[in-house]
Amino acid sequence: MKKLPREILRQEDKPGYEKEVWQPSWKCYCCHDLGIVRPHLVAMLIDGYDYRHDKLPRCQNQGCSAGSSYDSSELSNCIDYRLSPAICQELDMIEREDWRQTQAEWHSTRKHRQVDFSSVVQNLRPTNRTSGEQMEAMRRSEEVMARIDKGLNDTERKEMLLRTGEINSL
Ligand SMILES: [Zn+2]
Predict the structure, then answer these.
(1) pLDDT tens digit string along 61-115?
(2) Does residue 52 sit within a domain?
(3) Protein residues with C-beta less than 5 angstroms from the ion ligand 1
(4) What is the whole-number distance in angstroms between the Cα of residue 102 and the centre of ligand 1?
(5) What is the three-state SS of the chain?
(6) Which end of the chain is more exposed for a tag (fewer CB within 10 A), N or C?
(7) Is the residue at 20 inside a domain?
(8) Is the pTM for the entire model greater than 0.70?
């Protein structure tokens, strides 16, 4: 009888499956569709900006209407309207590029880690390796951890790793 190939039910059980990096789905990268420009972006324009004490810059990015909910008269004294559409557009581009790079880094970190972890596993096997080789193995695994840490320098990056199951908590 002619054989049929397996039909794997779950995507993640398929050979060669690689978990996809979490993709932000914001339309507006300036405010992440929240209407208020993200604090780390505002900090590029306003030295010492502190979102807990300063007025909140309303996003005026073209095509983004998320900020309109802040325009009521009760709230308007808490809102900073100085970030023009042109500024917001530039911040949007910066944030978009940052995310593109974060994702590229994530993929390369992942690749390095796969390579380096396999060599770490190899080094766990009982062999007659010299202490020099052992030091080299340790140095290599520390390098890998440092590389992973580098990619984890803000909450959103952590959140990304959290969502992909790479880490368990923030
Ligand atoms: Zn916006």
Answers:
(1) 999 999 998 888 788 888 999 999 999 999 999 999 988 888 787 777 766 655 5
(2) yes
(3) 28, 30-31, 59, 61, 64
(4) 20
(5) CCCCCCCCCCHHHCCCCCCCCCCCCCCCCCCCCCCECCHHHHCCCCCCCCCCCCCEEECCCCCCCHHHHHCCCCCHHHEECCCCHHHHHHHHHHHHHHHHHHHHHHHHHHHHHHHHHHHHHHHHCCCCCCHHHHHHHHHHHHHHHHHHHHCCCCHHHHHHHHHCCCCCCC
(6) N
(7) no
(8) no
